[in-house]
Amino acid sequence: MELVGGLVSAIVAAGTTVLVVVAAVLIGGIVVVARRRGRSGRLVKAPDDIRRRAGSALVRADDRIGEGEADVEFAIAQFGERAAQDYRGAVRRARADRDEIFRLHRLIDAEPEAGLANRERADRIVMLADRIERGLGEQAAAFRDRRSLESTAPDRLDRLRSRIAEARARLTEATRQRDALLARHARTALGAAADAPERATRELDRAEGLAADAVPGSTAPASSVMATISEAERLLFSAEEALEQVPAAAARLDDAGDALRRLRDDARVARTEALEAAGAAPDGDTGVAITEAVAQLDRAADADPAGADDPIERLGQLRAAMDAVEVSLASSRTQAQRLAHAREAYHAARVQAEAQVLVARDAVGSGGSAGARARLEDAVDELRASRSMLDTDPVGALDAVRRALTHARDAEVLARY
I want to staple 196 with a disulfide (CB 3.0 to 4.6 A). Which of 120, 242, 259, 345 is the partner? Predict the structure, then answer.
């Protein structure tokens, strides 16, 4: 009996030991899995954190450079080109850092799985944004101090009044030019220039009123007088910028009208070639495709021959129709013909892309996301590249300017929605 009892006790003890070991293994396994899941979760979230940090720094740097560019022009208007040389140099260095920020941001987007490399890229983006802030901040502070010197008040006030008078003289011509543009084009074609004279008038009125309040011998504190003059100068600068929008819009619309006339001439040649190709088409489907492209071209070429509504919009419609004809004739065109077509189509495409870049830039403003700004920067880069390629690779230049148009449209959509 004692032998049996001892045997039973041994079996129970062994079973208990096994259960303890199994339980320990299970608990250890659960802990390991939980830790791995925790690490895995952190790895999944890390790229999003990196993109947010890089995007936030990009927006901060882009906004700061925009402010610096405006402030340096303001400083030149106040104190002259020579006085603002160092400030302009700081802006130029900041733009170089900005280019590097956008390059690194593109790499982060292109290689989302490069965790460590992207973390280092984000760190550098933040460092560059901080450097931009420091460099421009020092120059801005120096000019704030200069503006606050009481001894400059009389000279600044005289210069302010002289510039207001010059702006008033320009206002009459800008209004006449704007009205002439509205008589020929849709209001939307003018963009911000459509109401620029009215905005300039309001800002000049306010600046003139503030200049009158800042007369010498005023009983107001000196700091208050200087602040009044500074506000009047900013209003005047804003009015001057608004007045510049009118001749810029006129030049842009004239350029679009010229491109439209040239593209219509090209369209007539393309139409004749397409009809000849349709008659000699190797199969029915090809002939139908060419005929449909010609019909689209006819509709675009006949719509609003003078481009009275919006020549940029008409330019886009006609260019799309020309592209359709080009696609339908691609197999029958020689290399020389393709190059010639690319050169002829480039100018119209560039005008349209430049106009879209301006629209996107207005939409981005100072509140656009990093994605919108990145697409806008891509559009500007593609436009710049297209100009350098035109002489040696017209087909590549045309493709680049089309990509610029696409990027600019994407930037506008991202900024607005």
Answer: 242
pLDDT band at 365 (very low <50, low <70, confident <90, very high): confident
Q: Burial level of 396, CB count in 10 A (0-12/13-18/19+)?
A: middle
Largest interatomic CA distance in the chain: 124
Which residues, in sequence order, are CB contacts of 192 under 8 Å at separation 6+? 242, 245, 249, 362
First to last CA, the chain: 88
Confidence of residue 192 (pLDDT cuts 50, 70, 90): confident
Residue carrying the six token digits 């209003």? 235
Identify whether the C-beta of residue 286 lies closer than 8 Å to the C-beta of residue 332.
no
Contact 178, 214 (CB under 8 A): no
State the sign of the Cα–Cα–Cα–Cα dihedral 325, 328, 330, 333.
Answer: negative
User: For residue 284, what is the enclosing H or E element?
Assistant: helix 284-302
Once rounded to an integer, what is the mean pLDDT over residues 199-209?
94
CA dist 80 and 88 (Å) reads 12
Could you write out the DSSP letters of every residue in 152-189?
GHHHHHHHHHHHHHHHHHHHHHHHHHHHHHHHHS-HHH
Q: Helix, strand, coil shares of the chain as percentages rounded to 5?
A: 90, 0, 10
Q: What is the value of pTM for the model shown?
A: 0.59
Handedness of CA 250, 252, 253, 255 (dihedral sign): positive
Closest CA to 407 of 382, 387, 370: 382
The candidate with the shortest Cα–Cα distance to 346, out of 394, 284, 275, is 394
Structural tokens at position 117: 């490399």
Residues 10-60 have pLDDT tens digits of 444 545 554 444 444 444 444 444 444 444 444 333 467 888 888 889 999
Report the alpha-carbon distance of residue 184 to residue 355 in Å, rounded: 18
The token pair at 1 is: 């009996």
Question: Cα separation of 271 and 324, whole Å?
Answer: 11
